[in-house]
From TrEMBL:
SMART domains attached to this UniProt entry: Flavokinase
UniProt organism field: Saimiri boliviensis boliviensis
EC top class, as a word: transferase
Protein's recorded name: Riboflavin kinase
Record function comment: Catalyzes the phosphorylation of riboflavin (vitamin B2) to form flavin-mononucleotide (FMN), hence rate-limiting enzyme in the synthesis of FAD. Essential for TNF-induced reactive oxygen species (ROS) production. Through its interaction with both TNFRSF1A and CYBA, physically and functionally couples TNFRSF1A to NADPH oxidase. TNF-activation of RFK may enhance the incorporation of FAD in NADPH oxidase, a critical step for the assembly and activation of NADPH oxidase.
Amino acid sequence: MPLADCVMRHLPYFCRGRVVHGFGRGSKQLGIPTANFPEQVVDNLPADISTGIYYGWASVGSGDVHKMVVSIGWNPYYKNTKKSMETHIMHTFKEDFYGEILNVAIVGYLRPEKNFDSLESLISAIQGDIEEAKKRLDLPEHLKIKEDNFFQVSKSKTMNGH
Ligand SMILES: Cc1cc2nc3c(=O)[nH]c(=O)nc-3n(C[C@H](O)[C@H](O)[C@H](O)COP(=O)(O)O)c2cc1C
Ligand SMILES: Nc1ncnc2c1ncn2[C@@H]1O[C@H](COP(=O)(O)OP(=O)(O)O)[C@@H](O)[C@H]1O
Ligand SMILES: [Mg+2]
């Protein structure tokens, strides 16, 4: 099966988890914070979902749904030994949200993970991903996922306090 088919078969992919600490590189070194999921969420990804860079929608707790990009894999530039799943939300938050529930809907695939010969080229690749994701998410087929019941449930009272 071609790579794109393997990847797309699982999309849209919905998941939630509590935001944990990563290596603290996202904001400090890249200027692009990424909310990291715990190991259990990463381990629960479908076994054949390819590592790489994806885009979709995300909300924190019962908050609004925003555009996002997500990186799944080993961050070859940093040579991580554990697979991670990290979401950058295209929204300015007043404060950090470690420990809160992050809800994500992955709707599309952008590219495989890559190594880079400088931090600047990693940063510009990520900025390019963000711009491309913003454009693609305006397509009607993607906009409708923003309204999915998955996000409505996270807004309902039954989720509060859990
Ligand atoms: C949209 C996006 C694309 C990314 N692409 C790559 C990549 O191609 N190669 C790579 O090594 N890391 C990539 N990363 C991951 C960053 O290296 C990672 O977010 C950074 O190391 C922060 O890690 P931390 O959360 O542990 O601090 C990407 C991250 C995002 C959000
Ligand atoms: N727009 C945003 N997208 C993702 N995380 C954000 C955003 N704004 C603030 N944050 C906060 O920044 C943290 C991620 O920063 P980062 O430098 O990647 O640290 P870590 O290595 O601990 O993941 C998130 O856990 C979240 O609390
Ligand atoms: Mg992070």
